[in-house]
């Protein structure tokens, strides 16, 4: 496993490319948008060099990693030599299925296809390809350069060889991997969505302010971020899609909180829009 392609240069895609390059892999970061690619390159360079200045990384390590990342808007060119492709596109099943069909046609026969998803079924996605044994889910966490975990989710037909190779890739990226059998929401999203949704319901009920709910979870339960802060960081539209999927597959306890639905309709999507449960405009 030498060559990794990452499809989608958004928040997760650029973070995955960062981790893969530091892990010693040759990386191609691909996106349909030239603007997204340029923003991703700027972000990766700033974060890497900033980490070197703070002493978290060696300068030589950073310069070596930066030479191992290339940026592309040409899809076929980006995947033609890939040993592993990590798809990090929009969190909608139809979008991911369409992407996996394209990857199946464009990639070499040995290429492993991984979806970075927090809730979606790798079995359903893999079924649209001719290589379901080489398909898997790798759930990275935001921000990727800081978060240590990758959930590796085995689909129905995923081979032991595919799992072993992906676990080794994760290890080389400096991550801890846990193997999860497919079930909606896996381990972390299933728990995290419940916590976040209950925090939103408490806010609606007037139990406490958003800041005090988050402070209670951080200081009382030792969470690194409060559930409402985290939802703002993830994006409230993304959280709503995850909640709707879990509600459809796991039932009533995952019904999205009314305030989440209202905020998304109002365009209050969290940090990326400037407002969510908190105001980021200043």
Keywords:
8-stranded mixed sheet, 12 helices, 282 residues, alpha/beta, 3HC_DH_C, 14% strand, EC 1.1.1.35, (3S)-3-hydroxyacyl-CoA dehydrogenase (NAD+) activity, NAD(P)-bd_dom_sf
Can you tell me about this structure?
The chain has 282 residues and is of the alpha/beta class. 49% of the residues lie in helices and 14% in strands. It has twelve helices and eight strands. An eight-stranded mixed sheet has the order 3-2-1-4-5-6-7-8, with helices on both faces. The longest helix is centred in the N-terminal third of the chain and has 20 residues. The radius of gyration is 19 Å and the shape is globular.
Our measurement of the CA-to-CA distance between the termini, rounded to an integer number of angstroms, reads 44 Å
Shape: globular
Average pLDDT: 94
Give the helices and strands as they follow along the chain: EHEHHEHEHEHEEHEHHHHH
Give the helix/strand class: alpha/beta
**Largest β-sheet summary:** 8 strands, mixed
Total DSSP helices: 12
């Amino acid at each position: 496993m030498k060559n990794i392609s990452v499809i989608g240069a958004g928040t997760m895609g650029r973070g995955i490319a960062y981790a893969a390059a530091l892990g010693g892999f040759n990386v191609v970061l691909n996106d349909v948008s030239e603007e997204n690619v340029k923003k991703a390159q700027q972000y990766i360079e700033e974060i890497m060099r900033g980490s070197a200045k703070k002493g978290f990384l060696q300068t030589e390590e950073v310069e070596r990693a930066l030479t191992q990342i290339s940026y592309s808007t040409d899809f076929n060119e980006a995947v033609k030599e890939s040993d592993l492709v990590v798809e990090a596109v929009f969190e909608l099943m139809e979008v991911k299925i369409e992407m996996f069909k394209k990857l199946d046609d464009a990639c070499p026969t040995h290429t492993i296809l991984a979806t970075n998803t927090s809730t979606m079924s790798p079995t359903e996605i893999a079924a649209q390809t001719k290589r379901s044994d080489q398909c898997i889910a790798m759930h990275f966490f935001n921000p990727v350069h800081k978060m240590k975990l990758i959930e590796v989710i085995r689909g129905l037909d995923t081979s032991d060889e595919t799992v072993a190779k992906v676990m080794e890739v994760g290890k080389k990226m400096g991550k801890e991997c846990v193997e999860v059998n497919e079930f909606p929401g896996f381990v972390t999203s299933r728990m995290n969505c419940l916590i976040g949704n209950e925090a939103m319901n408490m806010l609606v009920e007037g139990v406490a302010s958003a800041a005090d709910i988050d402070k209670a979870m951080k200081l009382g339960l030792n969470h690194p971020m409060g559930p409402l802060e985290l939802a703002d960081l993830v994006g409230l539209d993304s959280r709503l899609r995850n909640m709707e999927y879990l509600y459809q597959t796991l039932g009533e306890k995952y019904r999205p909180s009314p305030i989440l639905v209202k905020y998304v309709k109002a365009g209050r999507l969290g940090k990326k829009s400037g407002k969510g449960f908190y105001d980021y405009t200043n």
